[in-house]
Specification:
CATH architecture of one domain: Orthogonal Bundle
Radius of gyration: 22 Å
Strand order of the largest sheet: 1-2-3
Strand content: under 5%
CATH superfamily of one domain: Cytochrome P450-Terp, domain 2
CATH topology of one domain: Cytochrome p450-Terp, domain 2
Shape: globular
Distance between the termini: 65 Å
Bound molecules: N-hydroxyamidocarboxymethyldethia coenzyme *A
Largest sheet: 3 strands, antiparallel
Length: 435
Amino acid sequence: MSAIKQKLQEKIEGWRPRTTRLVKEYGDVKLGEVSIGQAIGGMRGVKCLVTDISYLDPFEGIRFRGYTIPEVLEKLPKPAGAEYPTVESFFYLLLTGDIPTEKEAEEIGEEFKARAKVPQYVFDVINAMPPEAHPMVMFSAAILSMEKESIFAKKYKEGISKMDYWDPTYEDAMNLLAKLPEIGAYIYRKKFKGGDIIAPDPSLDFGANFAHMMGVPAPYDELSRLYFILHSDHESGNVSAHTGHLVASALSDVYYAISAMIDGLAGPLHGLANEMVLRWIQGVMDKMGGKVPDEEEMKKFVWDTLNSGQVIPGYGHAVLRKTDPRYMAQREFSLKHLADDPIFAYVDILYKVVPDILREHGKAKNPWPNVDAQSGVIQWHYGVREYDFYTVLFGIGRSLGVLSNIIWDRGLGYPIERPKSVTTDMLEEVAGIKK
Ligand code: HAX
């Protein structure tokens, strides 16, 4: 057994008694109540999911395994001379809760390399898609096509003990993760670069190899590492994380779960928002003839969008009530690497004018920017201008968190998800509405 798997086994076995005790001895202790507003309103704020991989405080933002984004970026091992840590070391943290040594992070890198070869039929599936297919459709189908590789599905049919479910799930997760950068880059080069595919370079780390296969020079390798880390997880209630958890709770293997997760991420209110931000900014650029608007001009564009009944993409959040620290981390990157880019000037002006407008508009509970307000613009700067593709990047990152969660779900024996629904009649009765 590899050192990481050994460690994971110890951690899972050490953790299990805590979960078992909570269910057995404290299962009736109430976590809260559910209102009619919450039942109709997308279960906002209902505490009914458990994860130890990340926690989202509305005012502080995300912590991964207890560490804030600046702490993660500072503490994790980095490639020689690099600004941002490796994805490998970050995945080790998500899986185990521990900051890895350089050697431990390298072992994850070796595991990925040994599992990275993408079967030819995956490329055939992508090639068979109509050219207009959205990159997220290609990505989801490519992942699903590999389901036959699932070790969990095979072991389950053979009759594996529930206690051991996490083990083949770990194997599937590692096998899948190792292939995602090449699949993502393949989709990009196939769809947007005339099929001029760049072979992987196994000497590079996860993020740098992705940048290499995308055909984008440094510092895109730094950006890729940052991007995948920032987009990895945002506790369990968001659509992509929740979908992954829900599908896996039926003991569907990770190929089914991650393909479904990608489908949820593809919605414009979720991961597609980074594409929508760019579309919105491009629309303003066209109207301005490329000139950067001043604050007054920008305010008018924002109000026009709101008055036509649309949302301002990249702003607002279901849980956060302050500027997303993932936005701030990308803003810092931008200030360092692309402060003079006119498109960054757009983002900067939006940051100055949108929160006040959303407050005045009076609907959004959170007027501040989220992760998507900034991410597409950085991609644009480095020449990745096909914004249809941006959510695939998000999907590679999000897989790190969702797969860590699914491994732990299996380790702790979480059951199939099955909340209860009620009818509108029942709600009216509870509300005391006379008919
Ligand atoms: N612009 C205009 N109106 C907004 C708004 C925005 N950016 N954000 C919220 N509102 C509106 C909502 O549409 C809602 O209006 P109605 O009452 O008419 O339905 C009202 O304000 C209350 O919404 P809320 O409670 O503040 O927000 P929700 O939890 O319902 O939704 C969203 C959260 C992120 C979906 C929402 O803020 C939104 O649509 N933002 C724009 C799209 C976006 O940036 N999505 C990415 C979010 C981050 C993410 O998940 N990335 O993957």
